[in-house]
Specification:
The chain has 237 residues and is mainly α. It is built from 12 helices and 2 strands.
């Protein structure tokens, strides 16, 4: 037979005391303030030489790990930091450092253009778009897709046509290996700005250059040029 006592043998006073203790403990935990997200907890990244040494010869692997860590920084156990509350100066420092570790990597620029850059806080959007632009200039033929997205954000989300024109102009002039549609963005931004003469000149020059090889694309752009001429009062071909 077992020597264990039945719970019925436990004195009533002890049961009441235990229940009261559990109730008080639950009440104490419920009364504690919920964990708060501290955006300031994000610190500046280490020097790239320190990170290279820490990577043990695998800087690309470390870059990918750091990118995942940075992207998950807003979701920590029990807390959530909206992207809009992050220090974008520090975020761009981390993104730049990750690109230093892996210059061929695209994910930091994707995050800058499509994750942090679309947070509806204009000042922070501008900071992130400028980061994309500066990084584009370091490797235009590989990084042009993210500047093309920056044109979209500047044009449609920020509604800053001069800024969109700046980025679209860089695509046209500094990224020779970018596709034709990306280089043509400047023409359509000018058209949206009402700069029809400039748009017409650029489009006419593009068609005359022989760069447009696709017949359907050439036909579309030719029709667009005729529309511009009609709107500016120029005689059609």
């Amino acid at each position: 037979m077992s020597n264990e006592r039945s719970w019925r043998d436990v004195p009533t006073a002890a049961v009441v005391l235990l229940a009261a203790s559990l109730t008080m403990q639950l009440a104490w935990h419920a009364a504690q303030p919920r964990p708060r997200a501290e955006a300031a907890a994000l610190t500046a990244p280490p020097d790239v030489n320190v990170l290279n040494a820490a990577s043990l010869g695998e800087p690309v692997t470390l870059a990918r790990f750091l990118m995942l860590w940075l992207q998950a920084f807003d979701n920590q156990p029990g807390i959530s930091i909206p992207f809009r509350e992050l220090d974008y100066g520090l975020v761009t420092q981390w993104l730049a450092r990750i690109l230093e570790l892996d210059p061929r990597g695209q994910y930091p620029l994707l995050a800058a253009a499509r994750l942090y850059g679309e947070v509806p806080v204009p000042d922070k959007q501008r900071r992130m778009l400028e980061f994309v632009y500066q990084q584009f200039l370091l490797d235009p033929n590989r990084r042009w897709p993210w500047l093309a997205h920056a044109v979209f954000v500047a044009k449609h989300l920020l509604r800053d046509q001069p800024l969109a024109l700046k980025y679209a102009g860089a695509l046209a002039e500094d990224a020779p290996q970018a596709p034709d549609w990306a280089k043509q963005m400047r023409i359509f931004v000018l058209e949206d700005m009402g700069e029809l003469e400039d748009a017409k000149i650029l489009l006419g020059g593009l068609l005359d250059s022989g760069q447009i090889k696709d017949p359907a694309e050439y036909k579309f752009l030719s029709r667009r040029l005729e529309e511009l001429k009609e709107r500016t009062g120029s005689p059609p071909h």
